Amino acid sequence: MPTELLFRQDAYLKETAATVAAVNERGGIVLDRTVFYATGGGQPGDAGSLRRADGSEIAIGTTIYDPEDRSRVIHVPLEGQASPEPGETVTAVLDWEKRLKRMRVHTALHLLSVVLPYPVTGGSVGDADGRLDFDIPEGGLDKDEVAEKLNALVARHADVTERWITDAELDANPGLIKTMSVQPPRGSGRVRLVAIGDIDLQPCGGTHVRNTAEIGPLAVTAIEKKGKQNRRVRIALA
Ligand SMILES: [Zn+2]
Question: Average pLDDT of the chain?
Answer without folding.
Answer: 94
